Amino acid sequence: MFTDAHARCVAIEECYEFMLAYAGKGLPSDQGGGGQLRHLLARAAEALAGLADAYAVEIKEQGLQPWAPYQAYLAMLRRDSEDARVAIEMVSSLPSISSQVIDNLNALVHLRSLLTDLFLIDEILRPQRVSAVQE
Length: 135
Known about the structure:
Blueprint: H1 5-23, H2 35-48, H3 51-62, H4 67-92, H5 99-107, H6 109-134
Helix pairs in contact: 1-2, 1-3, 1-5, 2-4, 3-4, 4-6
């Protein structure tokens, strides 16, 4: 269970970084050692469910204004996170996951779009998070 938007972002980024390494291994299957891959994929899918809502809470808590641009951005984030989650869950459902499948998942425009969405919103919220910790 994720407690905040940033924790969700970290889980998604960890999965992506692992997938980059996994894709480079040239494995025909995850059988016999793919437990970590499947665990990280499941965790990323869980983090994606409700991701935009978690960021909405943080944006509101920080009192960022005007609300309209954030609301529009969150709608985009919701679409991108749902599309990425669907792809991750489809790959996770495979009986065997090759490095090539993961390489194709990494290249999926929906996943890349999601990651850049996260990088932008997380960077916008970072100064507010740092200020809150320092107070």
